[in-house]
Amino acid sequence: MPVEIAKPYLDPHAEELLAAIPAPRKALFLDRDGVINVDHGYVHKPEDTEWVPGIFKLCAEAQRAGYLLVVVTNQAGIARGYYSVEEFMAYTRWVHEQFALKGTPFVATYYCPHHPEFAPGCECRKPSPGMISAALADFEIEAMNCAIIGDKKTDLQAGLAAGLMKNRLIYSANKSLFYISRELDL
Asked: Coil, strand or helix: which one is 91?
């Protein structure tokens, strides 16, 4: 039996952000751990957060180019019991607030709370396209005009499976975000 995709965290300003960009929209999908924040392992508290250098500038450039910013993140720490959905949501709210303060608000964070050992029927855990496909439908986003930045091959596999163009799948490991913004032509 398939495991249901978790309900995303919608930014309080999502309606305003969506109203500013008519459909069909384009989006920059970002993995969280390793792309937005340094992956120190199961990060879920503000005091454990270290931003990846250049992330705020990259997001500002993407927004100026007309992209919605959407986070898609596997969060097996929930399934493993390291933190609860409520703790994850509180942290996600804080992350959204930090980006909004910098003038680069996210529209939503889609997350997979499952671990493959405990939920083998999961359709949202990357490399499955469930989170990206849900965002495409929820916000009238056209896959052909999107890009994804991820630090693992599963991030890129999810983008490809959701219909993103192969040349818009950006593997961020060992690349500076400055280089990535040039690669995306922002």
From this structure: helix
User: What residues form DSSP beta bridges with 88?
Assistant: none
Phi and psi (nearest 5°) for 157?
A: -60, -40
Q: How many whole angstroms separate alpha carbon 128 and alpha carbon 103?
A: 31
The pTM of this model reads: 0.92
Q: Which of 94, 93, 86 is nearest to 10 (CA)?
A: 93
Cα–Cα distance, 166 to 42 (Å, whole number): 29
Strand partners, 26: 67
Residue length, the chain? 186
Going along the chain from its start, the domains and CATH numbers come out as 9-183 (3.40.50.1000)
Active-site residues: which are they? 31, 33
pLDDT tens digits, one per residue of 44-81: 999 999 999 999 999 999 999 999 999 999 999 999 99
CB 172 within 8 A of CB 156: no
